[in-house]
Amino acid sequence: TEVRTGNPVTDVILTQQKKEAEEKGIDFKCEFSYPTETVINAFDVSVILNNAITNAFDGVAGCDNPYISVTAYRKKNAYMIEIQNSISKVVRIEEETGLPETNKKDKDNHGFGLVNIRKVAQRYFGDIDIEQTDNSFKLSIMLMVE
User: Fold this and answer.
1) pTM to 2 decimals?
2) Among 95, 71, 1, 9, which Cα is nearest to 44's?
3) Are residues 83 and 13 in contact, defined by beta-carbon separation less than 8 angstroms?
4) Which among 130, 124, 132 is positioned nearest to 140, based on CA atoms?
5) Quick one: DSSP state of residue 72?
6) How many CA atoms lie within 13 A of 82 on its CB side?
7) For 78, what's the count of Cα atoms within 13 Å in the CB-facing half-sphere?
């Protein structure tokens, strides 16, 4: 069940997340490869993965067939990370930020995950995109590698 990505940091994160998903009965698919020979820092990728997958775990709550899919690939000078998960209800997006509202009661201390992901993406001259349907949520993160 161990995940091999080409980087020991992302290997540990994704193996741990996969194990947690399996314990919770969540279908976890992972086609992630680390962008070797780039300036992208493994710590930055870990911020993205930890925050995005934590949000995905929250998102699958209440779903009949919960799943989380983690994909990463390089297309020319763009490195793409996509996390998709099932949802039981559509997530409300804040107009001001373009980011989902936190569903936690303590809003002063929660809701920073996507803000942090966006900061990392912008550090690499990229950004994030959110797509959702009635039963799925997809977060795409683009980082420029050259």
Assistant:
1) 0.89
2) 9
3) no
4) 130
5) E
6) 15
7) 11
Largest CA-CA distance found in the chain, in angstroms, rounded: 42
Q: Where does the chain show beta strands of DSSP type E?
A: 27-31, 67-75, 78-86, 127-132, 136-144
| Average pLDDT rounded to a whole number, residues 113-120 | 92
Surface-to-core class of residue 115, CB atoms within 10 Å of its CB (0-12 exposed, 13-18 middle, 19+ buried): exposed
**Whole-angstrom distance, CA of residue 139 vs CA of residue 132:** 9
Which residue in this structure is represented by tokens 């930020």? 97
Residue 48, phi then psi, degrees to nearest 5: -60, -55
Query: How does pLDDT run across 13-72, given as a tens digit for each residue?
Result: 999 999 999 999 999 999 999 988 889 999 999 999 999 999 999 999 999 999 999 999
Extract the tokens encoding 109.
């201390």
Q: What residue has token string 């020319």?
A: 76
Handedness of CA 13, 113, 36, 27 (dihedral sign): positive
